[in-house]
Design brief:
This protein has five helices and two strands. By secondary structure, the chain is mainly α. It has a domain of 52 residues. It has a two-stranded antiparallel ribbon with strand order 1-2. The relative contact order is 0.07.
Length: 120
């Protein structure tokens, strides 16, 4: 029983490369890793050409999937939108709460979401 447990403990995960050597292990120089804040500071202080591609100028491609919609009341993923108030809600208890809200609160919630306010 102990032999099987030892074999299971020594088994390397699939995603780890057994030949991997850390970059600091090869050279005698100690090289420190830079964090994102240091990279940004170095880019701001350097003299770069206009067409240089910098870490802060890289744009992500547009998403192919639509953005997720969240409830205006609880912040949970919302599947439904109230046609009267245009607020999003996640379940029936939130629906009843949305319908009971005064008009000024509804317009404030829509303004927070940067949606067009309802005209009532």
């Amino acid at each position: 029983m102990e032999v099987q447990e030892e074999k299971e403990e020594k088994k390397n995960p699939i995603f780890k490369n057994p030949e991997f050597q850390h970059s600091r292990g090869r050279n005698s120089k100690k090289r420190a890793w830079k964090n994102l804040k240091q990279i940004y500071a170095m880019e701001r202080n350097g003299l770069w050409p206009q067409d240089a591609v910098l870490y802060s100028s890289i744009d992500a491609p547009p998403a192919f999937t639509p953005g997720k919609k969240y409830s205006d009341i609880s912040g949970l993923p919302a599947k439904y939108t109230d046609p009267l108030t245009k607020l999003r809600y996640a379940d029936t208890t939130e629906f009843h709460r949305v319908r009971d809200l005064p008009l000024d609160i509804v317009s404030g919630l829509l303004e927070l979401r940067k949606a067009s306010s309802i005209v009532g």
